[in-house]
Amino acid sequence: MRAAKRVLVVSPHADDETLGVGGTIARHVAEGDQVSVAVLTGHGEDAPHPLWPQSSWTVVRAEARRAMTALGVEELIFEELPAALVAEQPLWKLNRLTLDVLERVRPEVLYTPFPFDLHRDHREVFHSLSVAWRTSSEVGRRVSEIYCYEVQSETHWNIPYVEAGFLPNCWVDIGPYLGKKLEATACYESQIRPEPDARSLGAIEALARWRGSQVGVDAAEAFVAVRLLRHT
């Protein structure tokens, strides 16, 4: 039996983690790993948000807690970078926050957004994390596995042939955990859309089935591996 691992899923917004990593999270939990999920954006701390009222986060954060309960996640971290405004924050502030999260969890396995997602929050979070996981620091060296995940309605809307598309090189069999992923996703009632929207439950299941078909299993989640370090 392998030793348990510390796993961190960094989510720019509540629901990204379940859409991209929900089945894999459930599998990590079932295999005895310690999983933490960090949602980095919220209403913001310094001023009223220009787009959404505080009540929006009251709703979605309650949904996130229910989703994490469904997946078996015990540690859910909420930070307060203002959603949709991450790129406008001082770079030192973003880098300090992502490093603080890494130092708090000290993961061996890290899941991060794909750097060419349509949403700029996702891009900024990836690039900030890439500073935090540098092997020039002890906490960076500790991270031996780093994976980018895909988020429906964000990852697949970039411009073809202008930016890199999401071409996975790693798949996780989530066949036994697809039901948990869909149960957790359904907790996000404020975020789910009716079919055939990309954020509908039917489309989410279809992507899992399609990713599974690529590697000969019933359902899978796909990733781009950034770092795979095998220690002696």
Task: Report what the structure shows.
This protein has 232 residues and is of the alpha/beta class. It has one domain: 3-Layer(aba) Sandwich (Rossmann fold), CATH 3.40.50. Helix content is 39%, strand content 20%. The chain is built from seven helices and seven strands. It has helices spanning 16-30, 54-71, 91-105, 120-132, 138-142, 178-186, 201-215, and strands spanning 6-11, 34-42, 75-82, 109-113, 145-149, 170-173, 220-228. Strands 3-2-1-4-5-7-6 form a seven-stranded mixed sheet, sandwiched between helices. Helix 1 crosses helix 6, helix 2 (54-71) packs antiparallel against helix 6 and helix 3 (91-105) crosses helix 4. The model has no long low-confidence stretch (mean pLDDT 95).
Overall shape: it is globular
Sequence of secondary-structure elements: EHEHEHEHHEEHHE
CATH architectural type: 3-Layer(aba) Sandwich
CATH topology title: Rossmann fold
Uncertain segments: none
Q: Can you count the beta strands?
A: 7
Rg on CA atoms, Å: 17 Å
Terminus-to-terminus distance? 17 Å
**Number of H/I helices:** 7
Give the fraction of residues assigned to helices.
25-40%
Task: Tell me what portion of residues adopts beta-strand conformation.
Answer: 15-25%
Please summarize the sheet with the most strands.
7 strands, mixed
Mean pLDDT: 95
* CATH H-tier superfamily: LmbE-like
Give the total of domains.
1
Strand order of the largest sheet: 3-2-1-4-5-7-6
What class, by secondary structure content? alpha/beta
